[in-house]
Design brief:
Helices cover about 20% and strands about 25% of the residues. With about 200 residues, it is an alpha+beta fold. Strands 2-8-5-1-4-3 form a six-stranded antiparallel beta sheet. α1 packs across α3. The protein is globular. It starts with a strand and ends with a strand.
């Protein structure tokens, strides 16, 4: 499942919080553009979410409309309008601490949807999420993104590929597949990254 927050923080040169875990998370993001947060939710919460995904998908799932969405990927959009099961995942404290640092007060959810990458899916084209912003890079991000792993996130089942450090790149540098690494993590984890980081969903 993925959701994104938006509203620009013009500078990330802010005082660090007092919590040592938050400080470590922030420093990792500042250096690499992303961080993997483990043990963010329980297996029971993940199983409940997957059951609700099955209910919402129904017997006739619809795949993506183009290669970017994934021609063998099932997405359920606007989750907060369809179920209360997913509410708890927008209140993960480690994620909120990161957003409080990298975004301005009053940030809001701009996208909240599930992503189920089916066998045979191809890798998503590499991109960064705020590519529509016409301001020179490197610059502060205009948002953040969060991927929640309800199942183990592996190199073979579609784990998002990221290019560490690419959030610092200028406009004239483009992400290449050989520069990526899979953001592998166990179920119950969260992958947090800045909207300026080059990334793309992996193949299954």
């Amino acid at each position: 499942m993925s959701f994104k927050f938006g509203i620009l923080a013009e500078s990330t040169d802010k005082p660090l919080p007092s919590d040592p875990t938050s400080v470590a998370d922030i420093k990792h993001v500042l250096e690499h553009g992303y961080v993997i947060l483990k043990d963010c939710f329980t297996k029971a919460e993940a199983d409940e979410a997957k059951d609700e995904m099955d209910r919402l998908t129904g017997k006739g799932p619809e795949f993506g409309r183009n290669p970017f969405e994934g021609l063998k990927t099932i997405r359920i959009y606007s989750l907060l309008n369809k179920s209360r099961v997913f509410d708890k995942f927008v209140l993960l404290q480690r994620v909120l601490a990161l957003n409080d640092y990298f975004l301005d007060p009053g940030y809001n959810i701009t996208v909240y949807h599930t992503i189920a990458i089916s066998p045979g899916e191809q890798a998503q084209p590499l991109h960064y999420d705020d590519i529509f912003i016409r301001r020179p890079r490197p610059r502060a991000p205009y948002g953040t993104a969060i991927m929640l792993a309800f199942d183990d996130y592996t190199e073979t089942n579609g784990a998002t590929r990221v290019i560490p450090g690419s959030h610092k790149w200028s406009d004239d540098r483009k992400g290449r597949e050989e520069e990526t690494i899979p953001a592998v993590c166990p179920a119950g984890s969260c992958v947090f990254f800045l909207s300026t980081l080059w990334h793309g969903a992996g193949p299954n």
